[in-house]
Backbone:
């Protein structure tokens, strides 16, 4: 039997309606409009599309959106000065530096400059540390969206074997921590893992975030597994995931498509993180 599809578009639309309702409540109760600022350095085409989608998402949710466009030759001190300005701006509850930055800029220093409470990407070391230690902090958008999709299967995650392929700070590591919080037994694999398929075939939940089109094949998947494909790869003008979708559909019980899967959830979770930051600010008075 073919796997059931975890439709990111449908889930995202439902969540965005809920976000819009909460934004209205926040305006009525506290007079606060959640604000998201995005800093875009240079003119990378993929980043431009992503930023436009964020602007559109904010508009539809009733949020304030600000995009700061800076030239590719921007220097570190100028970038950090702009971050400092947004840190001080009470209208802005979330700050996002669009990655990747031009090579001459220090990405880690820029991200560290953002106030942890305004770090809606969840990349600040304080938020990463809270995730690692079980504290309450901002969760990176893509892993948060992926976990939400897994939870929508209704499967009890306690004690399940989970395998994450990919060890990036943006997806792989935080994804592993989130699954650990759900009482899964987690294995984090990567490009140097030996006998990778031996690990993946034990997985009740398999998350692929390696950046290689069609990398996960049917023979690597346990029958009945939940398969979450985080990959976005452009091949011959088409977008493909890290999972051989057609083949794995015949093995898995649940699977996310690409496009239309986890990618749809990422900006939605960014809006959610921004809303929650604004709610915390409003409650503090």
Residues:
């Amino acid at each position: 039997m073919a796997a059931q599809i975890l439709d990111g578009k449908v889930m995202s639309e439902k969540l965005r309606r809920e976000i819009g309702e909460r934004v209205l409540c926040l305006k009525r109760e506290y007079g606060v409009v959640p604000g998201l600022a995005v800093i875009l350095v240079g003119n990378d085409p993929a980043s431009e599309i992503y930023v436009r989608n964020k602007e559109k998402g904010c508009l539809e949710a009733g949020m304030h959106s600000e995009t700061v466009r800076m030239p590719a030759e921007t220097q570190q001190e100028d970038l950090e000065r702009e971050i400092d300005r947004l840190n001080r701006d009470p209208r802005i509850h979330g700050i996002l530096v669009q990655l990747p930055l031009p090579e001459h800029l220090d990405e880690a220093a820029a991200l560290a400059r953002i106030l942890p409470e305004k770090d809606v990407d969840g990349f600040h070391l304080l938020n990463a540390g809270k995730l690692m230690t079980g504290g309450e902090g901002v969760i990176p958008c893509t892993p948060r969206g992926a976990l939400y999709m897994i939870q929508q299967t209704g499967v009890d995650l306690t004690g399940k074997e989970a395998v994450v392929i990919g060890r990036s700070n943006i997806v792989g590591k935080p994804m592993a921590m989130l699954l650990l919080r759900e009482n899964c037994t987690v294995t984090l694999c990567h490009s140097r893992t030996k006998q990778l398929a031996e690990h993946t075939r034990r997985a009740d939940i398999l998350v692929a975030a390696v950046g290689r089109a069609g990398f996960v094949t049917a023979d690597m998947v346990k029958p009945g597994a939940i398969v979450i494909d985080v990959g976005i790869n452009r091949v011959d003008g088409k977008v493909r995931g890290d999972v051989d979708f057609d083949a794995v559909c015949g093995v898995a019980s649940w699977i996310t498509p690409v496009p239309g899967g986890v990618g749809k959830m990422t900006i939605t979770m960014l809006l959610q993180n921004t809303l929650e930051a604004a709610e915390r600010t409003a409650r503090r008075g």
